[in-house]
């Protein structure tokens, strides 16, 4: 069961990254191009929000159902923090992905309160781009290829 959820988390990550890239680029291009906000822009930001939240939930299942807490209890937190790979997998990756989803959620929520196109795209561009940077910074690239 754990291996299936872990595999789902790995494959869903491609869709999540793709949607964050699309949403961030869409917001940036349309903000700087002074374009009007259309329903497709709303759908892109909403779909990105949904996909990223699903990825977070799957990731939390992997984190809590996996062997990570056993590793922490056996090695101790000092040794986990001293090991680059363990620290990345158990601490840094989950924390940065939670931060990225929070940024997406804040950006989505704030953009709905704006009444005109330029402020909507500005908020989406800022928060979705920060989320994209957070995700790109902590993707385990060695396991992706």
Number of helices: 7
Oligomer: single chain
Radius of gyration, whole Å:
17 Å
Major beta-sheet overview: none
Low-pLDDT parts are: none
Helical content class: over 70%
Span from first to last CA?
24 Å
**Domain module tally:** 1
Strand content: under 5%
The count of DSSP E runs of length 2 or more, i.e. the number of strands, is 0
Average predicted confidence as pLDDT: 93
Based on helices, strands and strand pairing, what is the structural class? mainly alpha
Shape descriptor reads: elongated
In short:
The protein contains seven helices and no strands. With 145 residues, it is mainly alpha-helical.
Write up this protein.
- There is one protein chain.
- The chain has 145 residues and is mainly α.
- It has one domain (2-128, 136-144).
- Helices cover 88% and strands 0% of the residues.
- The mean pLDDT is 93.
- This is 50S ribosomal protein L27.
Keywords:
145 residues; membrane; transmembrane helix; 50S ribosomal protein L27; mainly alpha; transmembrane; single chain
